[in-house]
Amino acid sequence: MKKRPTVGEILQAKGVSRRGFLKYCATTASILALPPSMIPRIAEAIENTRRQSVIWLSFQECTGCTESLTRSASPTVEGLIFDAISLDYHHTLQAAAGDQAEAARHAAMEENEGEYLVLVDGSIPLGNLGFSTIAGMSNIEMLKETVAGAAAVVAIGSCAAFGGIPGADPNPTGAVSVMDLVTEKPVINVPGCPPIPMVMTAVLTHFLTFGTIPDLDKHGRPMTFYGTTIHDRCYRRPFYEQGKFAETFDDEGAKAGWCLYKLGCKGPTTYNACATAKWNNGTSFPIEAGHPCLGCSEPNFWDGGGFYEPLSTGQFDSGTKLAGAAAAGVALGVAAAAAGRAKQAKFTKEG
Amino acid sequence: MTTQQETQAPAFPFHGNVRPVINEVLHAVDRLLETSEATTIDLASLPFGPGELEHLEATLGKGELSAKLDALGTSRIRETAFPGVWWLEHRNAHDEVVGRYLEITRTPEILSSQDADIIAGRARLEDQFK
Questions:
Q1: Are residue A159 and residue A296 in the same domain, yes or no?
Q2: Confidence of residue A73 (pLDDT cuts 50, 70, 90)
Q3: How many whole angstroms separate alpha carbon A205 and alpha carbon A219?
Q4: Structurally, how many domains does chain A consist of?
Q5: Touching check for A237 and chain B: CB below 8 Å?
Q6: Measured distance CA(A83)–CA(B61) in Å, rounded
Q7: Three-point CA angle B122, B124, B128, nearest 5°
Q8: Rounded to two decimals, what is the model's pTM?
Q9: Which among B44, B72, B110 has the least Cβ separation from residue A30?
Q10: B33-76 pLDDT, tens per residue?
């Protein structure tokens, strides 16, 4: 097997100074949400890590996840591809096609047996294997063949992680998630519709840096990015505590940037990093643009009730009571959020 | 007659996300003075509403010293109007912001010449005059 260069060797060959490298490590610590005190350890690990072979499989998906990844600014996807990973197979991004592309996948699997990462976007149809095929292979056949020699699998996007929109009721293709099929290898779920670019690259960076799987929650999501709710870190949270809610999309409350809870915001039950990582290179996120969170990183979000229905529907019988309850204090607010979570858990269980 | 407090614009007119950062900076400055312990605050990890980050930057102001680093994109390192409190902004090769930090320290580490670069530089200098 050809010995791949370390990332340190690659950067050195490019004439990147130690100062530049420290900057790279500082931004890496930031995207991994690690304390700056970890920078020396990150520097040491990155310097000695070898380029990681990555095989990306696309099944029942819309290519939104790839679109999102290619807009990653920290680090840029080009940076990742050329410096730290070897993207050996990706339908959309690779130049090769047909037999040549499949040969590249097989070569990467053979050369990096037991060490390569498989990234999957899209769900896998089991209703009729002919619903989605690549190079004459069904999706499940290609997944199982590719995963057999992998170190780990990363399910990119809500379709791969939980079935997503293809799996929504009535699930016409019999779509299932990666973790429904892959049980012998570690699976990291990176849900979102699409996931935040930085979160995708950060998961890869974590694996490259430490050679380990990050800590995961009960849905297989990295705790670093899915450990707190959107609501927990929302800049509009102070208005929730004060009981100040937008009642419609064009009222004074909406114009003043008040909380969107009553307009159906799923922030209190949605675990993701949008409120701090933000989108479009840190420009904003849906709530900042005036729209409630849809909860797209949660299982079965498409079937979880109306997007514009407050989580507390059924807990409070009128908007007045809801406002009064929120104004009464944080404790009750937390209770309402907990009730919302229980409601979502019910959907998840039934879904 | 107005008091000094009344003549000031509302200190934090937005969503209340700037004041906690200022409090954190104050605590970090105390630590720096008492134990010389440096602190880095990663601004990307904190919630800010529209305009609040700019408000924080304006509140901290500009001090006597600023530096520009050209390595994997541009970085700007600037002491704020409050000595020991530094504003760092890293950009990538496409001039996109990839990190913003407040460093509460006497000199940010990235300004110091690094041993690996010093060794490489010495070798280059020696080679030039061989």
A1: no
A2: low
A3: 21
A4: 2
A5: yes
A6: 37
A7: 115
A8: 0.80
A9: B44
A10: 999 999 999 898 888 888 899 999 999 999 999 999 998 889 99
d(CA A312, CA A241): 15
The Cα–Cα gap between A84 and A21 comes to 13
Q: Which helix (H) or strand (E) holds B122?
A: helix B115-128
Per the listing, tokens 């998961």 go with A203
- Are B75 and A23 a contacting pair at CB < 8 A? yes
Residue A79: what pLDDT?
Answer: 66
CA–CA dist A113, A316 (Å, integer): 56
Distance between CA atoms of residues A309 and A331, nearest Å:
22
CA A340 to chain CA centroid, Å, is 22
A221 and A271 assigned to the same domain: no
> Does residue A177 sit in the same domain as residue A240?
no
B2: in domain: no
CB spacing of B15 vs A235 below 8 angstroms? yes
**pLDDT at B77 > cutoff 80:** yes
Do A147 and A43 lie in one domain? The reply is yes
Contact: B40, A36; criterion CB under 8 Å: yes
For residue B94, the enclosing domain spans: 7-128
